[in-house]
Amino acid sequence: MTEAGRRPLLQIIVASTRPGRVGEPIARWFAEYAREHGAFDVEIVDLADVDLPMFAEPEHPRFGRYTLDSTKAFSAIIARADAFAIVHPEYNHSYNAALKNALDHLNQEWAGKPVALIGYGGVAAGARAAEALWPVLVGLRMVPVAATVPIPFAAKNVSGEGDARVFAPAAETETGGKAALDGLTEWIGTLGLRGSR
């Protein structure tokens, strides 16, 4: 439970764990864009840093009786969020294994919270991955917002090297980002999450 009246916490999840992934600079751009939007406190959760093992808890996550320190730590991170934005790639017409593994690790920590999808890839811009991801999010009792942020040929909009890489969004990407943030804000109000966690 957090102090009343604070801004809701938006966690931006970097789903790809590959070296040199485009998702990292996209997540940094969206984090800054969300801060400028003004409705959220923002933090980035990078699955490469979380470094979860393949799911190996002996009990179903809905019970919350975790045995692994890695699961306990991840649970504490995700539990403090009010909303999520998942920055995800498209691999072979779907989303990546690290993201599925992370989602499967928990249950109650995801439930009842809105989530926006920021997909990237080639010509499909992550749309097929988003379509595959949607029923998983619903199964976890999350609330996907209608506005998604598809980014085609995302690597073309990234410049620089290493940690200094910068994503420069097209105008339509920024428009989609604002719609997603507005959708998250609306759902937080509807679900009564503001200041509740």
Please, could you describe this protein's structure?
It is a single chain. With 197 residues, the chain is of the alpha/beta class. It has a single domain, classed as Rossmann fold. The strands form two sheets. Strands 1, 2, 3, 4, 5 and 6 form a six-stranded parallel beta sheet that branches. Strands 7-8 form a two-stranded antiparallel sheet. Helix 1 crosses helix 6. The mean pLDDT is 93.
Short overview:
With 197 residues, the protein is of the alpha/beta class.
Set out the fold topology.
Elements: E1 9-14, H1 23-37, E2 41-46, H2 47-50, H3 69-79, E3 83-89, H4 97-105, E4 114-121, H5 127-139, E5 143-144, E6 149-152, E7 158-159, E8 166-167, H6 171-191
Parallel strand pairs: 1-2, 1-3, 3-4, 4-5, 4-6
Antiparallel strand pairs: 7-8
Helix pairs in contact: 1-6
